[in-house]
Design a protein that fits this description.
2 strands; 59 residues; two-stranded antiparallel sheet; 36% helix; single chain; 2 helices
Length: 59
Amino acid sequence: MDGAPVEGGEVTLHGIRIVPADRACTVIRDMGRHATTKVPPQLAARAARLFPPYPGATR
């Protein structure tokens, strides 16, 4: 979500976790650390390939 004010940093709506775009990569990486089916670096690399870069983010 880009630009919307989100109190507390994230919202869950109908079971979908919504986070600010500048935190999306970090959240995905953190989720990958707890996944049992994928190795975290593979998950982060896949997300980096699939999602367009966020202009305000630094990697």
